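User: I've been trying to design a sequence by hand for this structure and keep getting stuck. Would you show me what you'd pick, starting by listing the structure so we're on the same page?

Assistant: Good idea, let's start from the same input. This is the structure you sent:
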C-alpha cells in the first residue's frame, strides 16, 4: 500500500511497512523539493531515509499490515519539518544514545546518531512511536548572468558569504576579462553578505576602474538591512544603490 497527497507547502505519505517502498518515498521527496528550487538533497535524504527505516524495521517490525505515515512540511527559509509515525509499541526515547559507536565494526546504533547530527531539533511523542525532525537545507548560491542592452545583470540565488566568495570572485573576473563595463547586481534573493563578500565587490570595482573609468555599477532590489549595511560601509560611494 502506498498513498501520497500534496498541498502548497507539504507532502504526505502513508505506506505499508516494506523496505522497498522507502526508496519510492525518497524519490517522491526529491521531486517535491524541486518546487522550492533546492538543488542539494543528500542531507535531507539521509535523515528521511533513516527515519523511515527505523519506523519500518524497529517500529512496525516489518509487519506489512502496519502502516507508516510521513509528513514533510516547508517552514520557510529552507527549514523543513519531517514527521514520521508508525503503529508500533513505541520505545523509551529518553535513554536513546545520539552518539556514534566507538567501535567502527559495530553494525547497529548508527541511525539516530546520523539523524541527530544533521538535524536542528528532534521531538518525540510520549509513546515514542512518532518523531518530528527539523532540518535546514543549505542552498549553495549560484550567480545567474544576463545581458540587457549595455548592462551585465548578475543575480545571486542566495547569500554572499565566505563559503561562496571564491565562486562569486571567479564569476566577476571572467566578466572583466570579456571586456564588459556596466554591471547591475540584483539582490532580490540575498539576505546576508559578510565582510568577505563585501571585499569581493570592492576589489571587483577597483579592477574595473583600472580598465575603464567610465564604468557604471548598480545594486538593485536590496532589502532595508542590506541597504543600511551598504551605507554604513560606504559601499554607496562605489555602487549606486537602487530599491
Amino acid at each position: 500500500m502506498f498513498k501520497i497527497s500534496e498541498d502548497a507547502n507539504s507532502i504526505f505519505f502513508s505506506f505499508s511497512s516494506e523496505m522497498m517502498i522507502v526508496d519510492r518515498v525518497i524519490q517522491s521527496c526529491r521531486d517535491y523539493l524541486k518546487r522550492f528550487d533546492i538543488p542539494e538533497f543528500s542531507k535531507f535524504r539521509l535523515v528521511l531515509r533513516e527515519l523511515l527505516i527505523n519506523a519500518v524495521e524497529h517500529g512496525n517490525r516489518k509487519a506489512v499490515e502496519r502502516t507508516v505515515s510521513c509528513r514533510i512540511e516547508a517552514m520557510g527559509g529552507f527549514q523543513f519539518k519531517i514527521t514520521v509515525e508508525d503503529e508500533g509499541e513505541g520505545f523509551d526515547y529518553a535513554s536513546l544514545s545520539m552518539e556514534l559507536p566507538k567501535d567502527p565494526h559495530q553494525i547497529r546504533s548508527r541511525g539516530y546518531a546520523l539523524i541527530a547530527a544533521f538535524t536542528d531539533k528532534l521531538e518525540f511523542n510520549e509513546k515514542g512511536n512518532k518523531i518530528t525532525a527539523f532540518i535546514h537545507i543549505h542552498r549553495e548560491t549560484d550567480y545567474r548572468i544576463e545581458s540587457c542592452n549595455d548592462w551585465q545583470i548578475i543575480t545571486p540565488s542566495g547569500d554572499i558569504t565566505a563559503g561562496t566568495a571564491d565562486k562569486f570572485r571567479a564569476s566577476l573576473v571572467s566578466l572583466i576579462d570579456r571586456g564588459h563595463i556596466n554591471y547591475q547586481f540584483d539582490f532580490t534573493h540575498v539576505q546576508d553578505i559578510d565582510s568577505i563578500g563585501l571585499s569581493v565587490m570592492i576589489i571587483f570595482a577597483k579592477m574595473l576602474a583600472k580598465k575603464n573609468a567610465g564604468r557604471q555599477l548598480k545594486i538593485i532590489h536590496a532589502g532595508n538591512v542590506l541597504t543600511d549595511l551598504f551605507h554604513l560601509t560606504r559601499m554607496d560611494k562605489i555602487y549606486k544603490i537602487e530599491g
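That's my pick for every position. To get oriented when you compare it with your attempt: The helical segments are 19-34, 42-59, 111-117, 165-177, 195-211, 224-232. The two ends are 52 Å apart (CA to CA).
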